[in-house]
Design brief:
Layout (H helix, E strand, L loop, with lengths): L16 H37 L8 H22 L18 H29 L11 H23 L4 H24 L7 H14 L4 H15 L6 H11 L6 H14 L2 H13 L5 H14 L5 H18 L4 H14 L7 H9 L4 H7 L1 H18 L5 H4 L6 H24 L4 H20 L4 H34 L2 H16 L1 H18 L2 H18 L4 H17 L5 H10 L3 H24 L2 H9 L4
């Protein structure tokens, strides 16, 4: 399995250097265009907040414009990441095939990805034609919001076809012919034998799992399976496919994700995170298990800024793991604890997955943020106890290469802590939305952090926006694709059938049994899928059932997010674990054994949270958020 990036490394690049240069030039333009749009989006949201709270004249159009700009970022970012072959995928199943078969399956996957992108572009064009003359609530032409989607889909088509053409001369044309003939045969059969036509849901299920098996990136596996459903369902025009994908992307609340990711990356780039961790090393380094405690505390603090677990691991691991090696500690145990701290901090606001779950399940995101605080504290204390028991003492001087004066170190750390407190206060007070708070966090990290430490250059700032736009494409294109899949499942009444079965089970065996079963489902699918798709698929399905059975949705959401984190970082399939090992330079097989003691504690904590709802509900009730 790949750690975080999915690439077709066995495909041979084309020989022509001019083709590569053209590809690189287009990629450079797309990446920087997406980064520029992200910068404009930050300014739009920040200006909206300033006008509303400082001048008391809200910019009514700002939310709609910001959402439209985010749509452009998502599809341009997804295209640029596709150009680099870096979308999240699973090659665990692919690697079970004989070595001589894998290149063929990779080539098939490349053509299927290209077909999906071209199909999405055609569907988007149909939607644009159908939307001519339609206006948004604030009077903008609807097509203006769709043109960036069409451009992004064309970019994805260009890069996906380019990737497919990198295969061997024989295999790329033979596999293309095979895919085309298979698709044509299916279409002809359904057209000529309507009474024996293959049901569209069969295409959806078979193609989804087939794509996962041959290693197609998860976002494109979801998008392709949904597209085939719409293609073979005669009652649905294809434009509805792109309509649902766009609908899944065009939401103002989701802007908090790229903004918090950008804020976290900026903290790392301008030295805020380095100073904070160095201060923690000075304070806790001499205690038994000091490095372990610093790992837990650092991840907890950075989770309150970046919102992204992999960003947290990169920020903390990049500093902690070298210190572990310098002090002759076990890097495998450090990597295991780092992965488990990411699980522990899944519910610390402003976690990306909490935002996604609140959005898809129609739950108050502010309420979810507060519901996750106490469970995260309980899990952190539990991990700390184990970490101290199995930890050792170190000399902080061996762990730190730069020796800043303590006064300067405390001052620098206060700048970072002020940002964390600002976000926490904004979330708990309810004076602003999570998106507005995230925009303030970006401006603070850039201006205050930049002026305080003077480590940000123009080149670094540009790189931050480009990287954040790419990460946005990776994360939110999955959300957008899953929206079309959810629509198809709803048409097939699968949510209704699942609800009937689970409600009966809950009524017979009790609500606790239902929540335990839901947590198990989320662990399994969080392991097989990337975390966000598991939440997107099951959040809207299971949350209403939980509510009917008397389970508070805030508690249920907290349990689901933690369970998903367990699956995402747990061996043997968890993508998050492989990402952690890639970041820390360790091997999964070496990390699994020391990880078990931490996973047992986290699993016990999850069960405790299921049986004692008050751990999740006490703080939201205190703040009047339930």
């Amino acid at each position: 399995m790949t750690a975080i990036l999915h690439g077709q490394d066995t495909l041979t690049p084309p020989a022509g250097g001019h083709v590569r240069r053209l590809n690189d030039a287009v990629l450079f333009f797309i990446e920087h265009l997406a980064g520029l749009i992200l910068a404009v989006d930050v300014l739009v949201v920040f200006a909206s907040v300033f006008y509303r709270y400082a001048l008391h004249t809200p910019l009514e159009w700002a939310e709609e414009v910001a959402s439209g700009l985010m749509t452009a970022i998502i599809f341009l970012g997804a295209g640029s990441v596709l150009g680099r072959n870096q979308h999240v995928g699973i090659d665990f199943f692919l690697n079970r095939f004989p070595a001589r078969v894998r290149p063929v399956l990779l080539q098939v996957g490349a053509w299927l990805t290209a077909m999906m992108c071209v199909g999405f572009a055609l569907s988007t064009y149909e939607l644009i034609v159908d939307s001519e003359g339609q206006t948004t609530p604030f009077g903008f032409q609807q097509v203006y919001l769709l043109y960036p989607v069409l451009f992004g889909s064309l970019v994805m088509s260009l890069f996906s076809v380019s990737n497919a053409l990198k295969g061997g001369t024989t295999s790329r044309w033979v596999t293309l012919a095979a895919c085309t003939l298979f698709a044509a045969a299916n279409y002809y059969w359904n057209l000529s034998q309507p009474e024996l036509a293959v049901p569209p849901i069969v295409y959806l299920v078979v193609s989804f799992f087939g794509c996962i098996v041959i290693g197609i990136p998860i976002a494109f596996a979801i998008a392709l399976s949904a597209m085939l459903y719409f293609l073979f369902e005669p009652s649905l025009p294809m434009l509805i496919y792109s309509q649902q994908v766009v609908a899944g992307a065009n939401h103002f609340v989701l802007l908090a994700i790229p903004f918090f990711v950008l804020a976290g990356l900026t903290m790392e780039a301008n030295g805020m995170s380095t100073r904070l961790i160095e201060l923690l090393l000075r304070v806790f380094g001499r205690f038994r298990g000091g490095l372990n405690l610093i790992t837990i505390i650092s991840t907890t603090l950075f989770s309150g800024v970046s919102g992204s677990k992999l960003a947290d691991i990169a920020a903390v691991g990049g500093i902690i793991v070298p210190a572990v090696r310098r002090t002759k500690q076990d890097p495998n145990d450090a990597a295991a604890l780092l992965a488990c701290t990411a699980i522990m901090s899944e519910t610390i606001p402003p976690c990306v997955n909490m935002i996604i779950f609140g959005f898809v399940a129609s739950i108050s995101i502010g309420g979810l943020f507060m519901a996750g605080v106490v469970p995260a504290i309980i899990l952190a204390i539990s991990l700390s106890i184990v970490a101290v028991i199995y930890g050792k003492r170190i000399d902080p001087k061996d762990a730190i290469t730069t020796q800043r004066t303590l006064i300067r170190l405390i001052g620098g750390s206060m700048v970072a802590l002020a940002m964390i407190v600002m976000i926490g206060k904004g979330v708990t007070s309810g004076v602003a939305t999570s998106t507005e708070i995230s925009a303030f966090a970006v401006i603070y990290a850039l201006l205050v952090g930049g002026l305080a430490f003077r480590e940000l250059t123009l080149k670094k700032v540009v790189h931050l926006f480009v990287k954040s736009a790419s990460m946005t494409g990776v994360i939110l294109f999955i959300v957008a694709a899953a929206s079309s899949l959810s629509y198809a499942l709803t048409i097939e009444r699968i949510p209704h059938a699942l609800a009937t079965v689970l409600i009966d089970m809950g009524q017979h065996y009790g609500a606790i049994t239902f929540v335990l079963l839901s947590a198990l489902i989320m662990i399994v699918f969080g392991m097989v899928l990337e975390g966000a798709p598991a939440l997107i698929l099951f959040g809207p399905l299971l949350t209403p059932i939980a509510t009917q059975l008397g389970v508070n949705p805030l508690q249920f959401g907290t349990v689901m997010v933690i369970a998903m984190g367990l699956g995402f970082f747990a061996p043997p399939l968890g993508l998050g674990l492989f990402a952690t090992c890639a970041i820390t330079g360790t091997r999964v097989q070496d990390v699994v054994r020391p990880m078990m003691k931490y996973l047992v504690v986290l699993l016990a904590g999850l069960v405790l949270l299921i049986f004692v709802p008050e751990f999740s509900l006490w703080l939201p009730r205190l703040l009047g958020l339930t």
